[in-house]
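Retro notes
What went well: the complex prediction finally ran end to end.
Inputs used:
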Amino acid sequence: VLTQVPATALATDLSRPPTTTWTVRAAKEVNYCVRVANNLLAPDDRTLITAGGTGSRDRRRRFLVVDAAVEALYGERLRRYLRRHGAEYEIRVVKADETVKTMETVLGIVAALDDFGIDRRRDPIIAVGGGVVLDIVGLVASLYRRHTPYVRVPTTLIGLVDAGIGVKTGVNHGVHKNRLGTYEAPAETLLDRSFIATLDSRQVSNGLAEILKIGLIKDRRLFELLERHGQQMLDEKLAGRTPNAEAAVREVLSRAVHGMLEELQPNLWEHTLERLVDYGHSFSPTIEMRALPELLHGEAVCVDMALTTVIARRRGQLSVSDRDRVLAVMRRLRLPVLAPVCRVDVLVDALRDTVRHRDGQQRIPLPVGIGGAVFANDITEEELASALEELTELAVAE
Amino acid sequence: VLTQVPATALATDLSRPPTTTWTVRAAKEVNYCVRVANNLLAPDDRTLITAGGTGSRDRRRRFLVVDAAVEALYGERLRRYLRRHGAEYEIRVVKADETVKTMETVLGIVAALDDFGIDRRRDPIIAVGGGVVLDIVGLVASLYRRHTPYVRVPTTLIGLVDAGIGVKTGVNHGVHKNRLGTYEAPAETLLDRSFIATLDSRQVSNGLAEILKIGLIKDRRLFELLERHGQQMLDEKLAGRTPNAEAAVREVLSRAVHGMLEELQPNLWEHTLERLVDYGHSFSPTIEMRALPELLHGEAVCVDMALTTVIARRRGQLSVSDRDRVLAVMRRLRLPVLAPVCRVDVLVDALRDTVRHRDGQQRIPLPVGIGGAVFANDITEEELASALEELTELAVAE
């Protein structure tokens, strides 16, 4: 929901024309809600049908964009749910992968939206899927009639704790990832971990990597929860089969989401390029692209975190035992700490790219102990080579 | 220039997980400058080359998008200017009319921008042209890497006082005008009326219609300036050939821009649907579309204003003599007060469309005297028919 805060006055005064310069000042207030909402498709649950909307019960219209994988597993339940709540609906299924993350897909959804017709002040668009679907639909919503409210329902773990809870939207263009996009807050993001049950376990690990990131840079207790319960969480796909496991899952998700939002909120439009949440995202974009399709996003992030953990240890910011605890947790979450693509020249290329994206400086978050971080701007090629050598030994010794 | 104001705190508290709901609040401050800057292409003027940029003199790169008509008239001077100021530049020429106002054109510009390469923190995109070019480039700038600064240089009178000074961007999609767009403030808008000299006089009248609008609804002195000097302004294409004429042109432009910005600033994202600047824009969208290509935008707006002037008179909000003054000024500015397409059924259709766009209510600004207005929600078909009859008689009697 976007509301407007009172704008400051015009800098000039109408009583004294002719003036020649005007400064227009205003502030757009962004205000959105992220909620844990388990089992959204339960027949009598009203969370999903009321989310982000103001329409009365008798003329509820909902346009949904759903990931093909989600459609196959949950499509029938979703339709039953919508019918039960008396909604007129249209479901647009998108086979979501990076190749369809294009403006063409955006325009296809826009055309379907035009055909269906929604009252953009009352009927939110609902996105159900992983990061790709959420990014595409967010862009549709920000462009359609210059803003249409939308609701995010992430169905992957990485979506639940990372891609789904921010405000970034985007599509790829040419060879460039997310080259075109906007910052557009959803009306609501609904976090339903029951979708995780049908993910394959590598996708669960993929999401756990982003949770681990938050633990490593700012929340030691979150790290310790993963150390103690991470393996079981992965095995049970976050189902929480015992009261203890359930409590741990809840606290892990809550801390991960909270930690992420704490970082995003003061920097929603990324004016600051020193972002703690970029931890694990300095070398990984290049690692991920060069290794495609071998590494998932979270896996590449984990390799980056393993490397920077070693760099931090070599700088004396982390003890040997903490380094080994970190690497042990990564293994327990079945995440890689190294990949064949990691050669020194690739890391140097990655660093150069990152510097270019961060306006000429490295701004690389490096751990200080477990749960703390600083930004480094002085990582050298030699340091990368030594750290890579140490990491290789540790990975082989395993 | 976008800067961020301090965000309010998270509504929840990390010390008490597990929580289940987070509210993210932040405010994006928008702050942009509209400046009168005559003769931007004068060889030694530094306004254009420094606008919106922070690059040092020795690595200035500028990507410009220029209307084909402007390119034909000013392209050589523009290139000379850029070379003189040591800029590396790329000029993308767009034959700007409604048919190329599409996402395809946006993507073509994006590809050219990728090829040229800019530092989006230092090198603004510069748009030079009428409303179509400004709208397209604004959309490019808001999408490219989720925001790239841009500078608007309107070259039409309607651009100078209306399309160029707000924050709306957009392209058409399917049959829908501006179906896809954003609100994205430019870094700066530079108002150079020397471009008006090469417009044909019908295009000057077209812009004067939007100036007249501001006078009618909120600035009686502006109306009176047009009454006294409008015809000469039109004949001289705003060149101000005598000191008196020059003073009048300056005051008219200053008041028009100021009046417009005063209305836009508190409602930059159009949360309020009661907009005084919608005066003349309730019936005109339909009139303009049905009459295409017969009527220019400002001409259709003028027909709408003539009709609503008569409605206001019939409601006793305006005297007969004021009504006649208004119609006389329209004629003096060589603007139509009626068009063959204006039948009662067309006006009824137009009203229905407008009500749909304004969330179920008419919200039609109607003059109260000259320089004042109220919003009407109760205009009937009978009233439209009577007003049209009266306007037809007045137009014939002319």
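What we learned: The CA atoms of residues 225 and 231 of chain B lie 10 Å apart.
What to try next: split runs per interface for comparison.
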